[in-house]
Write a structure and sequence with these properties.
By secondary structure, the protein is of the alpha+beta class. It has four helices and eleven strands.
Length: 175
């Protein structure tokens, strides 16, 4: 498995990301993540939709919480046919607890805690911390990556305006 030393930082300290650096136009790797009901969720489960995959280190940190709340608020303004997924290493129970407290009901929280395969496939697994690095992926209905942002300093926010512009530029595919 490839490693990208210094591809991310935590408070300016370099970190190593495991896995490839995905690019616009790449086929999105399949995944098996776990939802709040401890059921597996794959990329194919949302086939035919545009997927916003928001990757965070831990829901119990301020930037991750704000990022997830922001995408939960924006979800109702997005074109139909967009699924909003938030992925972290947090246990499904912690994710469900957070959603209940925060009233987050438009994002699907998914955990990569079991085998870290999502993190390695998407190039966001932090070797030193065994957490996921902050990143955004927009995956089209054809499973091709339409937008990608690896946030260099994991304590900073992604570029929300660019992400939302990428999503809103997609035509509505619903009947």
């Amino acid at each position: 498995m490839s490693e990208r030393k210094g591809a991310a930082t935590f408070q300016s300290n370099p970190l190593t990301l495991v896995g490839p650096e995905l690019k616009k136009g790449d086929k999105a790797p399949d995944f098996k993540l776990i939802d709040g009901g401890l059921k597996p969720v794959t990329l194919a489960d949302s086939k035919g939709k545009t997927r916003l995959i928001s990757v965070i280190p831990s829901i119990d940190t301020p930037v991750c919480e704000l990022q997830t709340k922001r995408f939960n608020q924006e979800a109702s303004k997005l074109p139909c046919g967009v699924a909003v997924l938030t992925v972290s290493m947090d246990l499904p129970f912690a994710q469900a607890r957070w959603c209940g407290v925060a009233g987050a009901d438009k994002v699907q929280m998914l955990s990569d805690y079991q085998d870290h395969a999502f993190g390695a496939a998407y190039g966001v697994l932090i070797k030193e911390l065994q957490l996921l690095s902050r990143a955004i992926f927009v995956v089209g209905p054809d499973d091709k990556i339409q937008y990608v942002e690896y946030v260099k300093e994991i304590t900073t926010h992604p570029d929300y305006d660019k992400v939302l512009a990428a999503l809103k530029s997609k035509s509505c595919c619903c009947g």
